[in-house]
Each structure stands twice: as C-alpha cells, then as structure tokens.
User: What shape does this take?
Amino acid sequence: MKKVFEPVELKNLSVKNRLVRSATWEGIANPDGSITKESYEIYEELAKGGVGTIITGFTSVALNDYYFDGMMRLCDDALIPEYKKLVDIIHTNGAKTISQLALGAYYRRTSGGYEQVEPDEMTAEEIALVKQQFIDAAVRAEKAGFDGVQIHAAHFFFLSRFISPAVNHRTDSYGGSVENRSRMLLEILDGIKNAAPSLHVTIKLNSSDFTFGGNEEEDALEIGRLLDKAGIDSIEVSGNGTSVGGIKAHVNEGYFVPFAKTLADNVSCPVIVVGGFRSLDVIEDVLNSSRIELISQSRPLLCEPDLPNIWMQDKSHISKCVSCNGCYRSDSHKCIFRNR
Ligand SMILES: Cc1cc2nc3c(=O)[nH]c(=O)nc-3n(C[C@H](O)[C@H](O)[C@H](O)COP(=O)(O)O)c2cc1C
Assistant: This one.
C-alpha cells in the first residue's frame, strides 16, 4: 500500500513524500529573470510547509519571451548564482526542487522590434534555436543545483502549441503525425539527458487540449508512450484550462485522474497528476487504486503553504482553497483569502 508520507525513489530524485507543488508562476521576477526577495520568501515558506518536491513557476528559457511580465528566466549564465540561492533555500528547508522550463511564445526579431511567430511559420534554424535554449537552460539549472527540470508542454504555451494539431500544420518532419509533432519534445529530452545527466527530467503534458482539432486523450497517450520510450523520468498530467473552479472535497476532486490512470497503465515511468486535490483520503485513494506515484497541487499551497505539515497532524483536514482563482489576479499570485 502506498502512503502519502513515505520516501519515494525516482530517477535522479529521492523525495520524502508523494506531494509535489505543481508549477505556480508568481510574476514577480525582474525583466532579466533575476529573482526578487519576495520570491525567496515564498519558496522558503513552501519548503518549510512540508511538501516533498517544489516545481518552480514558469521559468522562460529565452530573454526575448514577452508572454508574461515577471517571468523567471534561466537564459543567462550570469543568473546561475541567484537560482542557486533559491535552490539552497529550498534544500535547507527539506524539499527537493525542479525548475519548470518553458517558453510562452517564440518571438522573431524584425525591423520594428519583435513579433510573435506561430510554429507553422518557424524556420528549421528557429526550431533548432528553441531546442538549444531549453537544453542550455537545463544545464544552467543543473549548475544551480536543481534536482530536476520540467519541460512545460501543457496549457497551450509554446511547446504545447507546437505539438497540437490545432496549431501545428507543418509539412516537414515536425508536423503531421503524432510522432512528428512530438519530435521537438523528444529532441529536447535527448539534448537535456546528454548535457545535464544528473537531472530528473519530467514533463507537464495536456491530457487533452480541449480545443477543436487539438490533441485528445488518445494523442496524449501516444505522446506519453513516445516520451517514456525515449527515457523521460516522469510525466505530470494536466490539461488546457487546468485550474478548474468550483472544486469541492470528496465531490469533484482530481479531474485529470481518469486519464492519468490510463497513462500510468501504459508507461513505465512514474506518473504525477495535478488538478483539484483538496483532501488526503482522496489522494490516498487515487494512489492506491492506480499506478500513479505522486500527486501535485498548486492553489491549495497558495492558500496554505503548510498543508502537508497540517495533513501529517490531521488527516481529516480539508484544504481551505475554494478554487475561486482569485490568485491569478492578485499581486504575486497570492491567495486572496490569505494575508502573507
Ligand atoms: C496563480 C497560478 C499560477 C500558475 N502558474 C503555472 C505555471 O507557471 N506553470 C504551470 O504549468 N502551471 C501553472 N499553474 C497551474 C497549476 O500548476 C495547476 O496545474 C492548476 O492550478 C491545477 O491544480 P490545483 O487544483 O492544485 O490548483 C498555475 C496556477 C495558478 C493558480
């Protein structure tokens, strides 16, 4: 029987429990990607709260990625010491940490500045550049001491759009079949494995794009199988529109669980599932009725960063998160019902 609070050994990653903080972007980094004091405090509090693994917020691999304000960035070696400080704070407080490597969108330099370019319009050189940006960022993450990196291929950010048939209509080896559309992910994975071999390499993947003409569960299953075969160390299951509102404990928790269970039955790597977990007994039930190894959470840890510690004392505690999504609109993505 799996227990939530027991150590688990994953490839290149030993964790103290099965709870993961899913990537949660704070939007408070400086424009160059350097980290602000408030970020250090947020991660320190989270690590002290007992979660086993913290996946950082969206960390862009490029300097010219203007998708959001306040993105962390691992796009320059000069930033490594700042990220090392973040890692050290998390490690000192007993958690492991994975940097979520992402690209909001690809921006091409033009005579008038930069313009966002969709996958169909990208040249082979531009695709190679983006791949290299992910690999270089992973090397920086390894140098900063991160335990792993997560390739963000969910939620219709760049990589998720690149692999989606709703967006990608390329006619070269990066378009068409699921295998071709996944090529970019597989090449990034291979590059990271070679360049930063000490890292746990995970990926966040949509179970479905929930978009007309996009990837559906059978496509996601195939992408998962391809990644597994290529040596991914774990897969975190999500989906477009990931932060579903109106979640009630014991009523509609764990909305990506059905697909995650199917994926876990079809791959050899560990599967992590995010989305709407609010009670410990539901988490225990999911873990013990499937091959899913880890559960990840975002909003409940904005509301109560010490939720894992609370659960160790009181198994019946229900997350205070009401899934209002007010956190998306608040400064530094705080829970609007909590005074930091
Ligand atoms: C404020 C906020 C910021 C988020 N930022 C990210 C992010 O940077 N990367 C990501 O993959 N998901 C991000 N998410 C989605 C969460 O990781 C998670 O998939 C989603 O909220 C569902 O899980 P939950 O019910 O535990 O909140 C964010 C969610 C919130 C509420």
